Target: Mitochondrial transcription termination factor family protein
Amino acid sequence: MFSVLLYCKLFPFKKLSVYSTASLPFLHKDRLIFNPNLIECYKNQFFINFCNLVDVGLPELDSRTATSAPKKKPNFAKKLAKESSYTISYLISSCGLSPEKAISASEKVHFESPERPNSVLTLLKKHGLSRTHIANLVRKRPSLLLSNPEKTLLPKLEFFKSIGVSKAHLGSIISRDPTLLARSLENQMIPNYNYLKSVLLTDERVIAAVKRTSWIFLEDLTKNLAPNIAVLKELNVPQSCIILLLTHFPEAIMQKSDEFRASVSEVVEMGFNPLRSLFVLAVHAISGKGNKMIWARCYET
Model:
């Protein structure tokens, strides 16, 4: 049971807007609160208050006792608990995570000061990320809060801007796959962009492909994509059809080379003309387990 001192710290009498979770059913029962979201808000505030309260103030020791008592070394467990509670509180209040998600994320990131995470959030907001985008990004990759904003994150954000990615689309792209902000710009992303640009010819098509499959900037394109394009060229598939497949269905042409070659052979056996756009659409239709199941049902009928 909470002590009086602990209770007073959690629920100051002057802050009448904050209630304990124990009081919420009674408030709801007496029809003082009707909005479930408001109840959830109170719960989150209770959780934040609890996380911030690691050390309850203790009465001062008598001076004689204090001088005679040996000094104790800092308690590592208590320090770790304090750091964890601060991190959880920050993830809830500043990043928009639910208490459950904040606890999970706190297992992967710890900080005692808001200086670095605040600078990261400021940079992300400046580049158009909404609170929802930030919550998704932090939930998937909380360690980004400790990244160097100027050296690690800013160059990648500026790279996306330089190729024409709008602020509206940038948030959805990197929040869907925050790994984009963790990979090497010089060794991974720029080489992939240059290769894609050589095939798709325009930045607009590159952006369209990235929006559909963000890991097109993360994979080694020489491993599967380049050999798969070579397979299509062996059959004299027009460049326009290759562009169509890579722009709108990049996951189909980026599958493992042996699987892609098998799909192409199957489409050829079905009698599709490699010179027509229906050929690459058929390749997409039988690529992946989900598409193959749909194709099998349609083809049987």
